[in-house]
Each structure stands twice: as structure tokens, then as C-alpha cells.
Amino acid sequence: MRFNKVRGIRNLKNFFKGKRGKKNKLVINQSKNNIHTVSTGPRKYTVTIALPGSIVSNAQGLELKTVLVGQVARALVIFCVDEVVIFDDSGISKEQSNFGKHDEVNNENTFFIHLLRYMETPQYLRKSLFPIHRDLRFTGLLNPLDCPHHLRRDEDFPYREGITLDSSLYPKVPKNSTLVDAGLRRKVLVSDKIDPGVRVTLFMKETSSQKKYINAEVVSPSTPRETMGYYWGYTVRFASSLSAVLKESPYENGYDLIIGTSERGVAFEEIKDNIPNFNHILIVFGGLAGLEAAVDADQDLDIGGDRAEELFDRWINVCPAQGCRTIRTEEALLITLAQLKAIIMKKGK
């Protein structure tokens, strides 16, 4: 029997439309506002990951370095990490360093931070916030993060990221107000005076199409997580050493649970029932030579690498009896977060 291509395509379309009277009807959600976002309820606790920038040097060429950072970024958002700290484990002091210029060590740190921030930013804001740069040359190779705040133009959501505009260039903008580009067909109006070029988090008050501008309110980036439990991306900061990671917490009382990872740590299965409740957890990973080498290189610490575990509340090995000589940091990141996920959700306050 000959297959009628036109009739076959027509019948297939009718099947997917789900015509009335058909028993085997396939229901397809074709709504433009279909957002695959899961909320577990308001979440106050935070998860922070610390990684040495030196792991980028283990990749050859800009393409592979870019892919490595992309793998790290994907791991961060899969497990809802709120803050990532890139620290310098080289032991070079600020006086010796040429940070911000072209020395090799600090180029690794700045490259890592630059790419992580770029990937976390919604696509519609990247052109405004990130000028053309060599670091971003191969970002087209990366898989998108597709976080809840990476919204499409026609998606409705209570919160949205935007960038402030120069309101003097637009007509009929009320005094002491600011226009924001939030990736929508119309601009957003907030009742605050904010300098142009600032990234803001918006609470969308209404989305009526009857007005020239959409009304919204500027809120803290943590509000979507704290009020509705939506993961809202990660922040990135730099620490000049391992000790700076521990001391320079953005939280008022610092991190109340600090976990170090090492192949010489205690097997995770032995201590997983002994993890305390926490508000802000910090999980620290070492580079090619491990956390012990980072402790040895830190000039502000009075202990050696053989006593590294004294810096942490828990010193764990998430993959005992490993079948290879070493586990790469980006691999250890996925293994550790997968092991800790259920405990973090249970013990976080």
C-alpha cells in the first residue's frame, strides 16, 4: 500500500490536536506561559560552594576551559546553589599579585568568575551587561542553564530580572520613577529612582495590556526564594585565599556549617546521620592537589595541610574506594551535591 504523505501528515496533526470523540486523545499544553518551575515552599537557608580558580588551568585551550566552567554552572543550578566563591589557592599575596591585569594565575580566576556571571544572567540582559570580550568567545558551545529567572518574552511569572534604563529618553515617565527593560514587549515602571545600567529583581504587580508601562516593585534577589521557594540563580564572589572564603561571608553571622571535601576525609555514609541543622551551609572543594595544598599555600593560616580538617565542621569523603587515581573537582562537585541534596533539604532552616 502506498503511503499518502499529505494525508499522513494531516492525520498526524489531527491526532496531536486531540479531536473530540477520539478515545486515545493526547492532550498537549500549548500555552505560551507554560513554565517548568518547581517550588518546595519558602526557603530561608542558603547553600554556598567554594572552588579554586586553578581548576580551569587543567583544561587545554579556551574552548575546553569554557566547557568546564559550563559544567560547573550546570551543577550549581541543578542543585540550587545560592552562592559560589572562587578562591585563589596559589599562595600569591595581594602585593605580589597583578590581579585584574594579565598574570596567568589571576586570569584563571577572572575568567572563571566572568563566565559564571555571564551564564547566570538571563539571555535578554546579557547584551546590555556584558560587552564583547575574549572570555566569552565560545559561550555558544554551552548548554543553557534555563533557571526559573531565565524567562521568555511571553511567560508570566510573579518575579522577573531587568536592567534599569535612562528614563529621560522615554516620554511621560513620572518623576522619581525608573523604567526597566525586563525582556517583555513593554517596559516596566518602578517607583524608585535608580541609575541606568543596574540589574534589578522585580515583583510584577500587574501585566495589563491597557497601559503604556507595566507596574512593578524592586525587591531583593533573595525574595523569590524566601517568599515562594523559587530558585533564583547564584551570586559569585572572589576570595584571595582559603581563609578569606571562611572569613568574608556575606551573611551577618557567617556560615554555621562548613564542610570540607577530601579523599582523606571520613566516609560520608558514616556521618550522614550526624549533620546538624543550619542556616547557611558552605561546602569547600580543593583543586588538583586537594584542599590540603590550599591550606599549605595560605599565608594567613597557622596550620599545615596535614591539619586541614581542623578548619571544617565536617571533613568528608563522598566517594571512598574510588577506581581512579584522582577525582576532578568538577566531578567531585556533582558527586558531593548529589549525596548531600536530601540532607540539605531536611536540615536547612
Automatic annotation (TrEMBL):
| A family per Pfam | Methyltrn_RNA_3
Question: Do you know which InterPro entries this protein is assigned to?
Answer: Alpha/beta_knot_MTases, NA-bd_OB-fold, Put_MeTrfase-C9orf114-like, tRNA_m1G_MTases_N
* UniProt cross-references to CDD domains, sorted A to Z: HsC9orf114-like
What protein name applies here? Answer: RNA methyltransferase
Q: Which family does it belong to?
A: Belongs to the class IV-like SAM-binding methyltransferase superfamily.
